[in-house]
């Protein structure tokens, strides 16, 4: 179980990282270490969210609206498609 707060592998990795730097749970240095890791992770998450939103926006911009104007006589259909 992570000792410095948080959940899952991310928190366990942060604990390990701070311990490898010889910081000890309950000290101000350990708290600063965890805070810095948390801040960096927030920045990474924010960038990932921004990148995803840009991809969604780009996909939406590429979508086209099309219309078909045609006729069918017998078994033959002809017409035009316009997209914008």
Question: Secondary-structure blueprint of this entry?
Answer:
Elements: H1 8-20, H2 28-62, E1 66-73, E2 76-83
Helix pairs in contact: 1-2
Q: In a few lines, what is going on in this structure?
A:
With 84 residues, the chain is α+β, with helices and mostly antiparallel strands.
Key features of this structure:
84 residues
Shape: rod-shaped
Let me know the number of strands. 2
Distance between the termini: 55 Å
Please state the structural category: alpha+beta
Query: What does the average pLDDT come to?
Result: 85
Task: State the order of secondary-structure elements, H for helix, E for strand.
Answer: HHEE
Task: Give unreliable regions as ranges.
Answer: none
| Content of β-strand | 15-25%
Assembly status: single chain
**What's the helical proportion of residues?**
55-70%
- Main sheet strand line-up: 1-2
Computed Rg: 28 Å
Number of helices: 2
Counted up, domains total: 1
């Amino acid at each position: 179980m992570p000792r410095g707060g948080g959940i899952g592998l991310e928190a366990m990795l942060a604990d390990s990282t701070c311990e490898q730097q010889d910081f000890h749970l309950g000290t101000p240095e350990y708290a600063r270490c965890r805070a810095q890791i948390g801040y960096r992770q927030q920045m990474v998450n924010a960038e990932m969210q921004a990148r995803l939103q840009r991809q969604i926006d780009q996909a939406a911009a590429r979508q086209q609206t099309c219309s078909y104007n045609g006729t069918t006589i017998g078994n033959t259909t002809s017409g035009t498609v316009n997209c914008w």
